[in-house]
Amino acid sequence: MSTVVLKKLTLANCTPEGIANIIKDKKKVKDLNYRAFLYLLKTSGSSEDKTTFLAILRNLTFVVALFDKDCEEVFNEIANIEWEKQSENFRMIVKQFLVSLISSQPFYTNKVIDRAIKNLSLVDETDEIVVHETNLELLQFVSENMPTYMKFTQQKVLSNFPHKSRPLLDHQAYVTNILKLGNLIPSYFNEIIMTIIEKLVKMDVDVSRSPFAADKDELFFI
Question: Any idea what DSSP says for residue 64?
């Protein structure tokens, strides 16, 4: 792929119609523009000024019907952005895109669930616990509109629980957020409580068996 080709693709090429043509060209194995599009998405997403990225994301929302498994790289570029640390407007646009995406293409639902849960232990720049409303609202949308995915959600909540070696603050942030999730999805609240108890008991047992058992109270908040 030529660097010259990458430089030719700009925001002006990324209207809804332009993106639709890029995706269709990819399906015809003419994917130079698609690669250039991925490059633009990645560089604009990593830039301090995310105006271009947000404009592309808004336009992507109009063409989610064209997203099949071959467009997974586009989703991955969006998922790589820590939207939890961005502005409220940024998070709103991300949520609108992801809701449109899974409503049109259920294939991406597991990926959205996994991404939403994975970062629930993130804290802000001042090490304060943050309730990640966007992620929780995405999970609430799935529970209300795609209840068959709740089993997968439960599995991911359990498997993403912070490891015992992670800082105390990570555990507190994760528990705070999954308790909030239980409030948003009342039918899931008891399952959340059982998950927390199960993980804390397991950590307590693991630490008690370790050579550093005397220090366990410094690590956990049991």
Answer: G
